[in-house]
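Renewal narrative, Specific Aim 1. Our central claim is that a sequence can be written position by position from structural information alone. The example that follows is taken directly from our test logs and has not been curated for this report. It begins with the structure tokens describing the chain, in the order in which they were read.
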């Protein structure tokens, strides 16, 4: 069973604040219709979409060259040459490009803290992004049909079906951390920024780094008591992450577990392969696809989605992370359901991941912005050796692995006669003594 960090759980329980629901319920009556300003220091898929439009190198990192390209595009379209995608620029972008970018992930200090608050009667780009997400006709006008689609989505997410849209609804739609609803950059400064360049062993992709001197984002006005409490909760976790990460960098973080090292070795062999959303390999990966494939190669079956991977194994404090452990990034540090990225710890302060569209699998310096204060260790549940009569998670993993190689076992977590027969057949086919004992030598033949 998954064990969560005492810090994260304690803060949520003490404050009694769940995700963004209170923020939505108490939001200002004046609707915010714009998407967040995106400028130097931003990174992620939304930046790639913008760069593609303005003929900048689509590396997902909004730096000075991208700002220059944006200024050139703005000048050509009679806009103020701010070098950032501001409200006027969002309105001037081709509608399809604007909808796509506003609904994609964007992180870093270059993304302003703006969350669209929408209701019947308003119009604009954020409405179009919402309509696409809820399956309504995309016309940018928040009418009765859009309200009905929003209410249906809110009911499915167990939210108050008000038809009004704020942080909780955006989160339920998976759009927190996009320009449509970007809150966390104003709530906290979460530790050190990413390294400005890849490490020596990195792939050709850039490190997803914000600018070293971003323009500060203004704090949202009129915060409620619960919103201020949420700010403090997020900041407390962010401060803890900073301390834990500093301690982690003083340790080698090496592992002697051969299963974890086999997974890490596989991930390293994927360096240079492109990111692709939904990619499971072998030609391309997304972040959780790379993790899943790496551990499949070591004989362990992990869930496909990052948030489910977080819940799949016990955790250890961040400063105890070892090679092969999984680290997670969340839009709301108090709420693991907002996890949007997973990486594998490589030791020595480095991680390996598939970061975002336009980038490649590679090794990068650990960054702490939006990082959760725990590491998930998939191998911690693999208790070997296994013998007939054993039961539990490790036996279930054994059965799934044997099934991938042609067995037809019930994955019930019980080491019975059918599993024994399959184990003996596997060992015989791999020149091992055909007994029912499954030790590390046997396990390392899996994958």
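The sequence written for that structure reads:
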């Amino acid at each position: 069973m998954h064990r969560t960090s005492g810090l994260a759980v304690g803060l949520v329980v003490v404050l009694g604040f769940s995700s963004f629901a209170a923020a939505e319920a108490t939001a200002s009556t004046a609707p915010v219709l714009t998407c967040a300003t995106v400028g130097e220091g931003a990174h992620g898929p939304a930046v790639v979409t913008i760069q593609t439009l303005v003929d900048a190198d689509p590396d997902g990192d909004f730096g000075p060259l991208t700002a220059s390209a944006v200024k050139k595009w703005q000048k050509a379209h009679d806009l103020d040459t701010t070098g950032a995608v501001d409200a006027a620029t969002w309105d001037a972008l081709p509608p399809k490009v604007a909808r796509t970018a506003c609904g994609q992930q964007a992180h870093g200090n270059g993304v302003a803290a703006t969350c669209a608050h929408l209701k019947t009667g308003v119009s604009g780009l954020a409405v179009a992004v919402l309509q696409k997400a809820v399956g309504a006709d995309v016309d940018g006008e928040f009418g009765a049909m859009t309200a009905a689609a929003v209410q249906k989505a809110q009911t499915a997410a167990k939210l108050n079906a008000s038809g009004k849209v704020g942080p909780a609804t955006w989160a339920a739609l998976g759009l927190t951390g996009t320009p449509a609803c970007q809150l966390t950059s104003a709530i906290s400064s979460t530790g050190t920024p990413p390294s400005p360049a890849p490490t020596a062993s990195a792939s050709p992709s850039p490190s997803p780094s914000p600018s070293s001197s971003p323009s500060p984002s203004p704090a949202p006005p009129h915060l409620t008591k619960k919103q201020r409490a949420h700010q403090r909760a997020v900041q407390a976790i962010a401060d803890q992450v900073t301390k834990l990460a500093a301690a982690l960098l003083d340790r080698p973080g090496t592992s002697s577990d051969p299963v974890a090292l086999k997974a890490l070795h596989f991930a390293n062999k994927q360096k240079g392969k492109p990111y692709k959303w939904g990619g499971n390999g072998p030609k391309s990966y997304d972040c959780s696809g790379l993790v899943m494939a790496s551990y499949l190669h070591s004989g362990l079956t992990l869930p496909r989605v990052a948030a489910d991977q977080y819940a799949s194994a016990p955790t250890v404090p961040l400063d105890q992370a070892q090679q092969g452990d999984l680290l997670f990034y969340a839009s709301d540090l108090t709420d693991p359901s907002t996890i949007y990225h997973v990486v594998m710890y490589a030791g020595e302060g480095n991680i390996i991941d598939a970061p975002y569209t336009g980038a490649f699998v590679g090794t990068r310096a650990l960054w702490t912005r939006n990082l959760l204060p725990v590491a998930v260790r998939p191998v911690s549940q693999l208790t070997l050796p296994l013998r007939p009569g054993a039961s539990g998670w490790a036996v279930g993993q054994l059965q799934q692995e044997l099934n991938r190689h042609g067995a037809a076992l019930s994955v019930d977590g019980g080491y019975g006669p059918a599993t024994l027969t399959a184990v003996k057949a596997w060992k015989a086919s791999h020149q091992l003594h055909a007994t029912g004992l499954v030790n590390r030598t046997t396990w390392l033949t899996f994958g």
